[in-house]
Amino acid sequence: MGLSMYHSATGAQSPHCIHAIGIGKMGAYMVEALLRTGEIEDMLEDPRARFTGLSIDIGDQDQHELKEYVSGFDQRLAERGIPTERAQVRTVSLDVPAKKDLMTSLNRWREYLKMEYPRYYWNPNYEPWLPSDTEMPKAGDSIPRAIAKAIYGHYYYGEDKSLEKELDDFVGSINQTKLPSLVLVFFSLSGGTGSGMVVDLARHLSNVKLGRRIPVVGVAAMPFSGDEAHVGGDAALYPTMNEIDCMLDDAKNQGVMAVWGDLYKNPFTGGFFALPQEHSWQRLGSYTKTGKPAIRDALRKGVTRKFVNDSFMRFVVQDYGRLLFKMLRPMGFTGAPHERNISGDRTWTVFDVAKYTHPGVEVLPGEPRSKWRAVVSKWIGYIPQWSGLKEGFKTDYVEAHTVAPRELWNETLETKLKETLQGFVLDGDDGTVNTSVGEFFDELTAYSNIIIPGVAKTDFTAFYAARDAYDAIESWDEKLMMHSWLLDLGVILSEQSIRFDGMAGECIWGCACWVVIPHEAIRGDAPISKDVTIVQAEHIAMMVKTVVPTP
Predict the structure, then answer these.
(1) Sign of the Cα pseudo-torsion (443, 445, 451, 452, in order)
(2) Which residues pair with 210 in a beta bridge?
(3) d(CA 160, CA 487)
(4) Could you tell me the residue ranges of all domains in the chain?
(5) CA–CA separation, 14 and 3 (whole Å)
(6) Which of 11-20, 316-325, 377-386, 520-529 has the least mean pLDDT?
C-alpha cells in the first residue's frame, strides 16, 4: 500500500519525487550532478513517480555536459524497461536580446506587472532601470544581475513568452506525479545570471504556477577563495544576500509585502540551503602544482564544484528523498502547520561538505591506518574555520552524515567530529548534535555532509566582507547593476529610503518607493536573536501561559 507524505500511524513516509530547476552555469552543473547519481532512474521504477528537470542559462556554453548526459537518459530508462514519458528534462539557452528589443520589453514592464497582479501601483514615474547607455554583454560573459533580470523578463513576459511556457510545462509535468514532490532550485549566490534571475523565477514558480502547494527549496552555492571573478566581485554578494534574506525572514518579508503585495511572499516554501565550498576547495585545490596555471586552476575549481555538487545530490536522492524531507524538518518547513518553527532572522541553513581525504595527497593507499586517521582528524578540525560562519555562532541543532571506508572510520574520529560540531550548538540540553556513518563506494574517500540550520545572514563571514566591498563603490549606477529583485518596482533594496527616514529601499525614480524594513536590518547592524530557541520562545510566549502543570 502506498504511504502518504505524513503517515502518523507508522512513522513511515512515502518516497518523494525530486524535481529540479538550475539557473546559470552552476545551476546546469547541479542538475547534471543530480542526474549523474543514477538514482533518478531508480526512483522512476515506481509507476507513480516522475522526474522533471529544467536548466536555464544565457547562451549554451555551460550546458554541454548536461545536454550530453540528458541525451543518453532516455536510452538508460529504456534499457531498464522504464517508460521514457516518466521523465521530462529540458535545457533552455537564451540569446542576449538586441538592446532595442530589450528596452522595448522594459518600457512595457508596468503593463506586465499590472496583468500579473492588480495591486500593482501604476507608477507614473516608471522608466526602465537599465540606463540607456548600458552595454549589452555577450553570452558567456559574466552578466550583471540587473541585466540578467531584464533578460529573464524579456523571455517570460515579452515576445512569445517562451520562459513562461517552460515553467508551465515544468509545473504540468509535476502535476502528473502521483507521489509527494519536492522542487529544488539551484543557482550560484555569487554569479550574476543565477542570482539575477532566481528572484523572479522562484516567485513565478512558487507563488504563481504552483500556488504554494509543493515545497520549493532554494539551493545556492557560496563563493570560495579560488572562485573566478564575477561582475561586481565580492560587492555584488551583499545585495544578493539581502534580497534572499528579505524573502526568508518572515518579518522582513512582511515589510516587502506590506507595500507590494502577496506575490512577493517568500517563494522558498521548503527552505533554503547555502552550500559553502571552501573546505572542499582547500582539500582538493592543492592536489597538484604542475602544469599551466590557468589550466591547473580551472581543473581545481572544476573538481571542487563537482565534488560538492555530487555530495549534495547523493544526499538528496538517498532513500528516495525521504532523508532530505526529514532533514528539512529542523529548518521548520516540513512539519504539520501547528508545528511550524519560527526562525525569525535565522532562516538560512548551511550544508557544508567537509572533505577529509584525497588520494595521493598527504597519505597514500597502503600506508598505516594511523596515518590516514591522523590526516582525517586534522581536516575535521578545519570545519569551523572553513564553514563560512563567524566565530561564536551558535544554534540549537547540527546534523552530520559521514561516509567513509569501513576500515577507516572509528570511534576516535567519531568523537573528534562530535566534539568539533559541539562548538556550533548551545550548551547543555538546549543543543543537539546528531551524527550517522555510512560506507562510501571509494575506499580512499571520506567526508561529512554537515547540516546547520538556524543561521542568520550576519553569521556568514562573507556578508560583512561583501558589505565592505559594496560600501567602497562610489558609482550609483554600478551599485544599481548589482541588484535585481525589486528593480522593476523602482526599489534598490540595499540602499536607504529617500522619503522615509531609517527605512530601506531607495527609489530609482526619486519618488516614494520603499519597503517597511529598517535600513539597519539590511545593513546587518540591527540586533538579531541570539539563537533560535529565543526566537521560538518569544513566538509562543502567550501560549506558554496556557500550559497545564501536573503533580
Answers:
(1) positive
(2) none
(3) 23
(4) 17-273
(5) 5
(6) 11-20
**If DSSP codes are grouped into helix, strand and coil, which group holds residue 282?**
helix
β pairing state of 51-58 and 491-496:
unpaired
- Letter string b/e over residues 68-94, b meaning 16 or more CB atoms within 10 A of that residue's CB: ebbeebeebbeeeebeeebbbbebbbb
493: phi then psi, degrees, rounded to nearest 5: -60, -40
Q: Looking at this protein, which amino acid is placed at residue 12?
A: A
Q: How far is CA 114 from the centre of its chain?
A: 29
Indicate the CATH number for domain 17-273. Answer: 3.40.50.1440
- For 258-304, the pLDDT digits (tens) are 999 999 999 999 999 999 999 999 998 766 666 677 677 778 888 89
As given in the structure block, the three cell numbers for residue 261 are 503585495
Q: Which three cell numbers stand for residue 521?
A: 536590518
Give how far Cα 106 sits from Cα of 158, 206, 268, 467, Å: 9, 23, 26, 29
Beta-bridged to residue 218, according to DSSP, are 185, 272
Confidence tier at 517 by pLDDT (50, 70, 90): very high
Indicate if the pLDDT at residue 338 is higher than 60: no
Packing angle of the helix pair 24-36, 192-202 (nearest 10 deg) = 80
